[in-house]
Design goal:
- Helices cover 39% and strands 16% of the residues.
- The chain has nine helices and seven strands.
- A seven-stranded mixed beta sheet has the order 3-2-1-4-5-7-6, with helices on both faces.
């Protein structure tokens, strides 16, 4: 799917214009756009944005840190998760940003389905996966990502108002890829409510205003009548069948439908 979205971005993004991802996550589309000249990557997860900034500044140092933690193997997961939570809750400080970033990458490589989830105390609480080994990306991947991030504005946001303000900055010729928490999904672990009807309505309204300014909007969300109503008057909507990657058992993972909307 990221290649399809990246193809639309390349087709629609004008020269000297900016590509926007207000819900960055793994930023898989941005990292597919190796030749992009200007981008803005945003998210509400602080250690994620700090990790991207560390890779932008010193990709080799972050790689070395991740390799060091990876050398401890999968069995060190719960001990290192506690170390990470000490950093998250400010009980301790990391030696530097590379230590935090390397630890974040290690935990993402080891945890169940690469999920991010925090409890009421702000601690990362995703259990370990059933993997036998730790797979840290190669050094050349960190270098490639670092080069792309050199051309990227990285922002930590406070939802929901910061998200809308960022979208409002977009201008004619820009492209926005909106891939928010989907409508109807559970979003209670971190205390945010950005999959609710009110948030989704406001998000669609802000994106439509951007479209009217001449911005190309690419939007993904749940295939629900409520969501389709928000986008159908100004987007071409395509239904996508995707395999569910998150479930308590393998047998519980089924195909589910999403929509991909592209502004007309």
């Amino acid at each position: 799917m990221r290649h399809e979205v990246a193809s639309i971005v390349r087709e629609r993004l004008c020269d000297d214009c900016t590509y926007w991802e207000p819900f960055a996550g793994a930023a898989s589309v941005l990292f597919t756009l190796h030749d992009i000249q200007s981008a803005c990557l945003c998210d509400v997860i602080e250690p994620l944005i700090r990790t991207y900034k560390a890779i932008k500044d010193e990709p080799i140092e972050v790689w070395r840190s991740a390799q060091e933690f990876g050398g401890d193997g999968i069995n060190a997961y719960y001990f290192l998760r506690e170390v990470f939570n000490d950093f998250l809750t400010l009980r301790k400080k990391p030696k530097n940003e590379y230590e935090l970033a390397g630890l974040f990458i290690y935990l993402n490589a080891c945890c169940y389905n690469g999920l991010w989830r925090q409890n009421a105390e702000g601690e990362f609480n995703v259990p370990v996966s059933d993997r036998k080994t730790v797979k840290i990306p190669k050094q050349r991947t960190f270098l490639s990502v670092g080069q792309i991030l050199q051309r990227t504005d990285l922002r930590l946001m406070e939802p929901p108002t910061d998200i809308f303000k960022v979208i409002d900055e977009s201008r004619k010729g820009d492209v926005i890829f909106s891939d928010p928490p989907y409508y109807g999904t559970f979003d209670g672990y971190d205390g945010l409510d950005i999959s609710s009807e009110m948030f989704q309505e406001t998000l669609a309204d802000v994106l439509q205003k951007a479209h009217k300014r001449g911005v190309t909007v690419i939007a993904m969300n749940s295939n629900e009548p409520f969501v389709r109503k928000l986008y159908r008057s100004w987007c071409r909507i395509k239904t996508i069948n995707r395999h569910q990657t998150v479930a308590s058992t393998n047998s519980g993972r089924k195909e589910w439908q999403q929509i991909l909307g592209v502004s007309k």
